[in-house]
Automatic annotation (TrEMBL):
Enzyme Commission no: 1.4.1.1
Gene: ald
UniProt-listed InterPro entries: Ala_DH, Ala_DH/PNT_CS2, AlaDH/PNT_N, AlaDH/PNT_NAD(H)-bd, NAD(P)-bd_dom_sf
Domain Alanine dehydrogenase/pyridine nucleotide transhydrogenase N-terminal: 4-137
Pfam families reported for this sequence: AlaDh_PNT_C, AlaDh_PNT_N
Alanine dehydrogenase/pyridine nucleotide transhydrogenase NAD(H)-binding domain segment(s): 149-297
Stated family: Belongs to the AlaDH/PNT family.
Name this protein carries in UniProt: Alanine dehydrogenase
Catalytic activity as recorded in UniProt: L-alanine + NAD(+) + H2O = pyruvate + NH4(+) + NADH + H(+)
Coiled-coil residue spans: none
GO terms assigned for molecular function: alanine dehydrogenase activity
Keywords: NAD, Oxidoreductase
Amino acid sequence: MHIGCPKEIKPQEFRVGLTPNAAREAIAHGHTVTVQTQGGVGAGFSDEDYIDAGAVIAETAAEIFATADMIVKVKEPQPVERAMLREGQLLFTYLHLAPDPEQTKDLLASGCTAIAYETVTDRSGGLPLLAPMSEVAGRLAPQVGSWTLQKANGGRGVLMGGVPGVGPAKVVVIGGGVVGTHAARVAAGMGADVTVLDRSLPRMRYLDDVFSRDFKTMYASAGNTIEMVREADMVIGAVLIPGAAAPKLISRAQLSEMKPGAAIVDVAIDQGGCFETSKATTHQDPIYDVDGIMHYCVANMPGAVARTSTIALSNATMPFMLALADKGWRQACEDDEHLLNGLNVHAGQLTYYAVGKALGIDVLSPQLALKA
Ligand SMILES: NC(=O)c1ccc[n+]([C@@H]2O[C@H](COP(=O)([O-])OP(=O)(O)OC[C@H]3O[C@@H](n4cnc5c(N)ncnc54)[C@H](O)[C@@H]3O)[C@@H](O)[C@H]2O)c1
């Protein structure tokens, strides 16, 4: 198969769909790989790195879209990219179609087959191609939160780990899933006093079994949540209700009960955020003040550490990318129901029920699409 990897063109996107190592593996499987010039530069990979791996460098995205059997990317294709997709071409990337009717219309019109990273599943019911980005965002949250807590940034001026004779920062993490667990581990590693709130008892049992030396757990009733938030120097929002907007757990009125200069890092902002006062910010202008509480609400946190994020994403996508290339999408999806769950679009038809429901479009069952 001829695998193509264009440079990402969405503003502020520095990741790339294939690392040189992933390209090398695909080539070792007998495939050819073309990468757009400077495609990996934002993640610290030069054209020479790809050439050393055996890939070919193309000057333009147009050359890649015109010739590749499979396009591997990070972000959803932008309008100019969608115009270049062809019938029968395979697209493997994040799509997030449910809130995006324009993109859905264009993908259907293109006749391509599109497999979305975010809906590929695993045996334990997880989302293996979303998890690496949650791990990154979770580990980054205390790092940006500690910066936000600094006096010059409007914060309380509290050091995460304290010093001998001065207590550590109190960090409260709401939601103990992938983001929350990684956030809590890093905050604890920085010496903070950390409590994780969640509504799932099995999840809290797991966290308590594995991490009881590092942080405490507490049931996320409304009463417990506001009590902990009142005492916190930093609150990290990490809840997720699959397929729904994040629940608003702290109202604007409740902000006034928090310590002045406390920091909120609302990682769940990509689902609307779990604080009433959260609004999405960018890496250029990441924090803002509401009633003396500093908010960090960057919707694409992994972009701040594009190199780590690219390698983590590529590690997770590589086995699927190789299966698609080795067997073709039909056989690969027939052999792996979890990869089939990633199928969102095939030959002008939508094949993912939740997207169809959100956009009011008829859906062809993915099993039937395999036979179409
Ligand atoms: N901003 C970013 O750059 C970025 C990056 C990655 C992930 N995210 C977002 O972070 C959020 C968390 O992702 P995840 O991968 O950790 O999800 P996850 O499903 O692994 O964890 C979510 C946790 O929230 C808990 N929860 C649900 N409702 C709750 C409530 N009312 N109170 C307390 N806990 C509750 C669940 O029990 C679960 O343990 C998602 O919205 C995800 O989209 C954002």
